[in-house]
Structures are given as C-alpha cells and as structure tokens.
Amino acid sequence: MQRLDGKIAIVTGSGIGIGQAIAMRFAAEGAHVWVTDLNGETAEATAQLIRKAGGKATAMLVDVSKGQDVTALVRAVASAHDRADVLVNNAGILVRGELRTLTDAEWTRLSEVNIDGVLRLSRDCLPLLRKSAAGSIINISSIMANRGLRPLAAYTATKGAVTALTRGLAVEYASFNVRVNTIAPGYIETAITERMLKLPQARKLLVDKTPMGRLGFPEDLTGAAVFFASDDSLYCTGSELVVDGGMSASL
Ligand code: NAP
Predict the structure, then answer these.
(1) Mean pLDDT of the chain
(2) What's the distance, CA 69 to chain centroid?
(3) Which of 14, 22, 141, 143 is the least crowded, having the fewest Cβ atoms under 10 Å away?
(4) Cα separation of 178 and 174, whole Å?
(5) 3-state DSSP call for residue 60?
C-alpha cells in the first residue's frame, strides 16, 4: 500500500521545479495527479513522465490568475472524479527589485499569481475537497515570508499573505474536514533562483548560511508534501513545515 493510494491531487505550476517534483512523488505514492501549469507543454511533459513510470496523471493548462481557467479545471476534475483530496497551491513567480522601482504592472502580476491564485484555487476547489474523506490544501510559502531580504520586499509580502491565508483558512475549513497547511522552503535550485545562484558570490553566501552545507533540490520538498497530503497529518491544520537545511534556525 502506497501512502497516497487512490487520492486525487491537483498541483498548480507543476510543469517544472518544485511542483513537478511534488507531482511525480504524489503519483509514485499512488495518487492520480492533475498536473496543471501556465505552460501546457511542460504540464503535458510531466504527465507523460508520470504515465511512463506507471502512474496516473492528467495535464491541463491552467493560469491560476485567470478565473475561467480555474473554473474549467474544477469542472474537469468534478466530471472525472467528482471530488479532489489534495490541492497544492505551488504556482508562483518572483519579481526582484527594490520597492521604489517596482512598477504597478509588476506588483499586479506578483499579487495576482502569488496571492489571488492561491485564494481562487482554495475557494473554487472547496466543493471538490469537501467531498473527500480527508481534504488537504498545501500552500507553498517561503522562509522569507517572515524576514526582510533585499531586493525582494514585494515577493516576500506575497508569501507572508500565503502564510496568513493558511491560518485563516485552516480555521474556516476545519468544519468541512479540509486541512490547510504551509510548506516554507529555503533556497531551492530551480528556474526561479537560477539567475541568482549563477553568481558564485551569492551561491557561496547562501551555502555558508545553510547549516546542512548545501542548497535544496525540488525533491527535498516532496516528503513534506506527502506528509500533508497523506492521512499521517490528519490532526495537522494551520501548520507550517520549514524545509531549508537549517537556514532559518541559524539566521
Ligand atoms: P519554477 O521552477 O519557476 O516553477 C514555477 C512554475 O509555476 C512554472 O512551471 C511556472 O510556469 C508556473 N507558473 C508561473 N505562473 C503561473 C500561473 N500564473 N499559473 C500557473 N502556473 C504558473 O519555481 P519553483 O522554485 O519551483 O517555485 C515553486 C513555488 O515555490 C513558488 O510558489 C515559489 O515562490 C516557491 N518557493 C521557491 C523557492 C526556491 O528557492 N525555488 C523558495 C521558496 C518558495 P512557467 O515556467 O511557464 O512560468
């Protein structure tokens, strides 16, 4: 018996990076995964990798900032399974820059993906999650939600909102038997961090600040995601699990 046998999981932004690693691990643990992404091609490629490995996956282009995309996703999952057990709000973007130079358009995009997207999915998927024996929403925040990091004030503000939303929704959704928890990653080697980590000085600084002596890989997040998705976390809601190699403990 695998840990997510028979569960229906939706993972946003799972064409690449952390979302892809979570989608692949969920499928390996027995879930049917809805691999959704702004990029339909990477979503399909991830779903194919899962199917090749013997797992179950459906790919769909979903921009979390577009209400009609989310409505279409909810309809498709409802018609295929009539419920969802797990929603991972992973899709996110990073805009670097000091606040004084941030444009309205940049802030709008940051907030409509990183905050509005999480709100919309969490609201619109509730009817599906309520039908689960044990619904679970997992929001991907960041250890930077509680810290100042230059020049990322706007990005960290969006992650702070995700952390706050997790607590509020945990209270609101408990009566529907839907848990809501956060995973807070440290520095993970993905497309989002690639540009910064190419700078040898920045990489060295971050590795030196990580007690475990290395930055994270997307696969490092998957154990925490399986825990919150599985029945091992039935009494956890409003929790945050930090996965950062000890970085935040040492700051
Ligand atoms: P990534 O490699 O850039 O992957 C993000 C994925 O989300 C991409 O497939 C991207 O598609 C997709 N996406 C972007 N906007 C979207 C939208 N509007 N609708 C649907 N999908 C969208 O980044 P990652 O590092 O895996 O990040 C995943 C999550 O972890 C994010 O929420 C990020 O803030 C968070 N996080 C990452 C780190 C880190 O160090 N990497 C640390 C803390 C938190 P495209 O490629 O087409 O843009």
Answers:
(1) 97
(2) 18
(3) 143
(4) 6
(5) strand
**Catalytic residue status for 155:** yes
pTM: 0.99
Which of 190, 243, 248 is the best mutation target for the ligand 1 pocket, counting ligand atoms within 8 Å of the beta carbon and taking the most?
190
User: Alpha-carbon distance 187 to 249, whole Å?
Assistant: 14
Closest ligand 1 atom to Cα of 14: 9
Q: How far is the CA of 238 from the centre of ligand 1 (A)?
A: 22
The residue with tokens 């190419």 is 198
Q: Measured from the CB, is residue 91 less than 6 Å from ligand 1?
A: yes
Q: Are 210 and 244 in contact (CB under 8 A)?
A: yes
Backbone angles phi, psi at 87, to 5 degrees: -125, 120
Strand partners, 137: 87, 180
Residue 78 vs residues 81, 91, 128, 192: alpha-carbon distances, Å: 5, 21, 7, 32
Given the CA of residue 218, which atom of ligand 1 is nearest to it? 26
pLDDT digits 0-9 by tens, 175-234: 999 999 999 999 999 999 999 999 999 999 999 999 999 999 999 999 999 999 999 999
